[in-house]
Design a protein that fits this description.
By secondary structure, the protein is α+β, with helices and mostly antiparallel strands. Among the domains are: about 125-175; about 180-255, Beta Barrel (Thrombin, subunit H); about 390-485, PDZ domain (Pdz3 Domain). It is built from 7 helices and 22 strands. InterPro entries: Chloro_Bact_Ser_Proteases, PDZ, PDZ_sf, Peptidase_S1_PA, Peptidase_S1C.
Length: about 475
């Protein structure tokens, strides 16, 4: 799984950029008609990228979800993805099984000496919407004219009565998607980030009345100063935002704007979520602010890892949903049927082998960070300016092909198999031991174990099932704390 900055090629023509004067763009060339008997163009298969040395190779029938991109829009101003660099799998500091990385999003990015950003204009997009609306009204008017000319007065009156009855039947009920969207939309923002190397866009939502906004770390990763980040509310108001803090480990970031009259979205309990619950995703996919999509909770506790390198990896114990999530939805809320936030939209999946030839977009496999994890991490960032995550202090052997996850047998890369006086060491875990379950939940691959640990908090106690040369036993491990950098 990779996340934005990684994005696939989109077949449709990119939407107009919101920067610069739209009137200065030359008219778009007219498409040439396709030949009637054109030979099919041969498709170039993506060149398989080597997995990191320490990446386990899961069997095709099971294992953690792979093949991800993260939905943060990066058009001509987006940063390219970095290649995986990890050579070992550490349960809590480095290393996670990395699938083959998708190709870099091809774009022309400004260099370090690029000029200041131009005034942001939305005329291009607005014009596009307006043209569609005008065309629709003209078609409707022409059709209505034909009906009025060819039908009798009695027939016309029947048509109007039917329309009135339909409008009455469409009254929005409390708790409907329309009702929930109306409540949530004013507290969801579109986020634009500018930097010397390009920029990114994503989504976020209001956490507190006094201006704290939650989003994904990868959305604001390139921001270096307060005026690099602009948030836009549904009513069109804009504010410069400061990045209070962020954590790559959980792919979360907190922004602050100068407002004290905001409406915070209520946070639900993600531990109460069950498969089949209604979900509503709200954000700005492809810059289309205020987009609302619906679905259900498709699965829980999906182990999802994302990132482009050893120091750029997030571990998500994810909620899976089939609500459409697309590039630009990153950081937006996933809400339940009561309008409570149950997750932070973070990643989408693409079919294996489709990274080059298929556009990045929703195929009904979206993933969100649970609201409980998001609340804990955001609370730490607001209070301390940084986040923490739990560790047990072992390095895992990702080449191990047996059942479970094995601790390396000898030091690797300057790291001991078991950190002296760390949680695992205190619990009696040794080099070469195999961890087969955490809290009776089986683990088969390194990232499954890491994700399960990261779903806890420092100070929590977990039960690990460990297989040693003398047999299998269960040990209790109290998790230590590490600071996210």
């Amino acid at each position: 799984m990779t996340y934005p900055p990684s994005h696939e090629r989109f077949a449709p023509r990119p939407l107009p950029q919101n920067h610069g004067d739209a009137s200065q763009h030359p008219p778009a060339p007219q498409p040439e008609p396709a030949p009637q008997h054109a030979e099919p163009e041969p498709q170039t298969s993506p060149v398989p990228q080597p997995l990191p040395l320490a990446s386990p190779t899961p069997p095709p029938h099971s294992g953690p979800v792979t093949g991800f991109v993260v939905p943060g829009t990066r058009g001509p101003q987006q940063r390219p993805p970095s290649a995986p660099q990890s050579n070992s799998t550490s349960a809590f500091t480095t290393g996670v099984p990395q699938p083959p990385q998708p190709p870099t999003w091809t774009s022309t990015q400004p260099g370090p000496s690029s000029p200041p950003r131009a005034p942001r204009r939305r005329g291009g997009t607005v014009a596009l919407v307006s043209v569609v609306a005008v065309v629709a009204s003209l078609i409707g008017g022409a059709l209505g004219s034909r009906l009025a000319t060819n039908d009798s007065v009695a027939r016309s009156s029947v048509i109007y009565q039917s329309a009135e009855q339909d409008n009455a039947a469409l009254s929005r009920q409390e708790g409907s998607v329309a009702d929930i969207a109306a409540q949530v939309l004013p507290s969801v923002v579109a986020i634009e980030v500018y930097s010397s190397s390009g920029g990114s866009t994503g989504s976020g939502f209001v956490m507190t009345k006094d201006g704290y906004i939650l989003t994904n770390e990868h959305v604001v990763a390139e921001a270096s100063s307060a005026n690099d980040v602009i948030v836009t509310f549904f009513d069109g108001t804009e504010h410069e935002a400061e990045v209070v803090g962020s954590t790559v480990e959980y792919d979360l970031a907190v922004l602050k704007i100068d407002r004290d009259d905001l409406t915070a979205l209520p946070l639900g309990n993600s531990d109460d979520v069950v498969v089949g619950d209604t979900t509503i995703a709200i954000g700005a996919p492809l810059g289309l602010q205020g987009t609302v999509t619906t679905g259900i909770v498709s699965a829980l506790n999906r182990p999802v890892s994302a990132g482009g390198g050893e120091d750029d990896i997030s571990y998500i114990n994810a909620i899976q949903t089939d609500a459409a999530i697309n590039p630009g939805n990153s950081g937006g809320p996933l809400v339940n049927a009561r309008g409570e936030v149950i997750g932070v939209n973070s990643a989408i999946a693409q079919p294996p082998g489709s990274m080059v030839t298929s556009p990045a977009g929703s195929i009904g496999l979206g993933f969100a960070i649970g609201s409980n994890q998001a609340a804990r991490t955001a609370g730490e960032i607001i209070e301390r300016g940084y986040a923490t995550y739990p560790i047990i202090g072992v390095v895992l052997d990702s080449t191990y092909q047996g059942q479970g996850v094995q601790v390396i047998r000898s030091p690797q890369g300057g790291s001991d198999p078991v950190t002296p006086d760390g949680p695992a060491d205190r619990a009696g875990i040794e080099a070469g031991d195999v961890i087969t379950a955490i809290d009776e939940r089986p683990v088969t691959y390194a990232d499954e174990l890491i994700v399960a640990i990261r779903a806890k908090a420092p100070g929590d106690t977990v039960t690990l099932t460990v297989r040693t040369s003398g047999g299998e036993r269960q040990v209790k491990v109290t998790l230590d704390e590490a600071r996210s950098e």
